Please model this.
Amino acid sequence: MRCIALMNQKGGVGKTTTTVNLGAALAEMGQRVCLVDLDPQAHLTINYGMDPTSDAVNLYNVLIEERSFLEAVHTFDANIALVPSSIDLAAAEIELVSVLGRETILKERLKSAQHDFDFILIDCPPSLGLLTINALAVATEVIIPMQPHFLALQGVGKLLETVALVSRRMNPLLKVSGIVLTMFDSQTKLSNEVVNDLNGFIENAKGKPLPWANAKIFESKIRRNIKLAESPSFGQTILKYEPQSHGAADYRALAREVLVHIPGAARPIAPTVTAPPAVVAKLPVPSVIAVKPSAPPAIVKSPAPAIVAASTKPAADKKVSVTTKPIEERKLVAAKVRIPPNPAATPPPPVTPAEIEALT
Ligand SMILES: Nc1ncnc2c1ncn2[C@@H]1O[C@H](COP(=O)(O)OP(=O)(O)OP(=O)(O)O)[C@@H](O)[C@H]1O
Ligand SMILES: [Mg+2]
Model:
């Protein structure tokens, strides 16, 4: 099984659109796919026509109430299943603060499902909080959807620093498999400049003990396509909504690339021939979804969790930012991410609450 976290703490870059449609395209190719909505905004859930306020067993029940992962799996097609989010998930980060092993709860729960799917795609929220850390702790791969926009480069350093930390301390299998450029317009100079910057950055990591040493910029760029923006309101993937569109073609091409590009040490388990997971509940997909626009997560960071006080990391250490650089000088500051010379030499100590807090 390959477990891929679709991650970028920047909002609106195409994480959910990519999860939905990459998943649909992989399923169309015969892969058994499970999509996990880890975002309290629940856009992935809504995209599948499910109401995140319904009583269906969801990820919150799994993470907080110890319901089994398979109970929350809702199958939609022969090859596609969804573990929905719920508004309650916004509170999960606070509720988990006092739970032992809170960074690996999703990993624990997912164990029961690892033979049921060829791919698990996790749609992360736009933050580097505890939910995202849980995704990184269980994933074998990270795919970073990114809009080729100057501002999109900001934050890549912090994102990769988070991946490196989790890879070092919790999940040595974790690799960045690549960056997928979304809402791409090949005509613009800026798009091409961003691609060049990213290429240089990835080249620079080759051969180094970094989780992104074998990353690539996927050849399949996702062009801006209005059909991709329309399809969620019909509760459909682009493959069903407009199978001949550019959007459908781009996500099919991306799925073909993802299928063959397995980064570094991430060793997928050969697909098994077990029966698809039992249908727990199949909700009707309305032709137009009457779901209120989701409110931003109601989560308010716990004002003073114990782990804040424990933080000893100097503020200067946490700075990985390009915000003050003029455009012409911009460089991916991710190059400055601090990696120990030989991470494999000493057994990794567990991630401390202070480190998680410093990153979030
Ligand atoms: N290739 C595309 N062409 C046109 N519109 C797109 C494309 N990709 C995504 N969109 C639209 O852009 C918006 C943001 O996309 P999406 O919700 O996938 O981003 P996100 O990274 O998941 O956002 P968030 O961080 O809020 O979870 C949506 O309205 C989506 O329909
Ligand atoms: Mg999203």
